[in-house]
Amino acid sequence: MKRILAWIGVNIDILVALTVAIIVSALDIAGIATAEAVSNATVATLAVLAFVMLRSRMRAESAENVVEQAIVAADRKIDLLPSRLQEQSAARLVKGEEFNRLLADARLDTDRWIFKGSTGAYVRAVTLPECLGRARQGRRALLVRLEILDPNDIHLCERFVRLHQSLALSADGPESTWTGDGTRMELYATVLSACWHHQRYELLDVEIGFSSIASTFRYELSSRYMFITQRGPDFPATVITGNALALDCWATELHASMRQARSLDIRRGAAVTLSSPPTVEEVRTLFERLDLALPETYGDDDVDEIIRTAFKNSDPYDKAAWG
């Protein structure tokens, strides 16, 4: 009934014209209506029909305009779709300058940096100082979690070197100069740097874990980005952003991995005040307190090299250094 009433409401003018035409025709046939009445009724009916046709045409033109505008808007959205899909994609491959740009953007306002890799050279030289500088400016907390190779396992360090030397692009590549002991010194430098920064910023929370597995991959997670990389920015890297579920999944994975690593209690080193830069004696005492004593074969020159490496803020990729 509602549909019938609605149809009648929309077509009432047509029904009126049709009713008038039928009544006048019947009266004319019966000889009741005069010729003048029939003529007037015919004119009125034609006027109603003309109005109906005009209204229908206006509605059609209006509908065409709406459809045309919708098509134009759809075309614009389709044109923008590839770039927006690229921006909002959960995962994509990048390298070179784009990779560096995204890394820099990830460091802008993050409240965390979770790393799983080998020596953490880039984090030590670039990421940690920059993130700390921004955290200081905003007087906000910063969580840094590092899962790196175990420096007490020299055989692990040597396996790491052999792995990357076997994957080197050329026999005279930068990997050819790597050694197991050099890798171990890089690891000590990362620990020293983390302890030094931890003493100088109360809102810095540092966790360090030592892995027993040498891998070609490196994982880094900020508050808005996830990076999965191999050797340097010239190699394709997987970047995940704009997808909270994917970032949460990776955060869970890295958390689980960290809990299976050998944990270093960095708080044990708080009793050793580190100068700027630390002295050889301070560094030796620090590692003893951390239960990570330096090898007995290390002389003062070796400890000095660890100190220089720990506070060298140049980008290690400029010289194809460690990862």
What report would you give on this structure?
An eight-stranded mixed sheet has the order 1-7-6-5-2-3-4-8, sandwiched between helices. Residues 319-323 have low confidence and may be disordered. 57% of the residues lie in helices and 13% in strands. Strand 2 (112-116), helix 5 and strand 3 (142-149) form a beta-alpha-beta unit. The chain is α+β, with helices and mostly antiparallel strands. Helix 5 packs parallel to helix 7 and helix 6 packs across helix 7 (180-200). Keywords: Membrane, Transmembrane, Transmembrane helix. The chain crosses the membrane at residues 12-31, 37-54.
Which key terms come to mind for this protein?
single chain, disordered C terminus, 323 residues, Endonuclease, Chain A, elongated, alpha+beta, eight-stranded mixed sheet
Short description:
The protein is an alpha+beta fold and 323 residues long. Helix content is 57%, strand content 13%.
Instruction: Give helix and strand order, one letter per element, not per position.
Output: HHHEHEHEHHEEEEHEHH
Number of extended strands: 8
Overall structural class, as computed from helix and strand content, comes to alpha+beta
Strand order of the largest sheet: 1-7-6-5-2-3-4-8
- What gap, in angstroms, lies between the N and C termini? 77 Å
**CATH structural fold name of the largest domain:** Endonuclease, Chain A
CATH superfamily of the largest domain: Endonuclease Chain A
Instruction: Tell me what the CATH architecture of the largest domain is.
Output: 2-Layer Sandwich
Percent in strands: 5-15%
Keywords: Membrane, Transmembrane, Transmembrane helix
Transmembrane segments: 12-31, 37-54
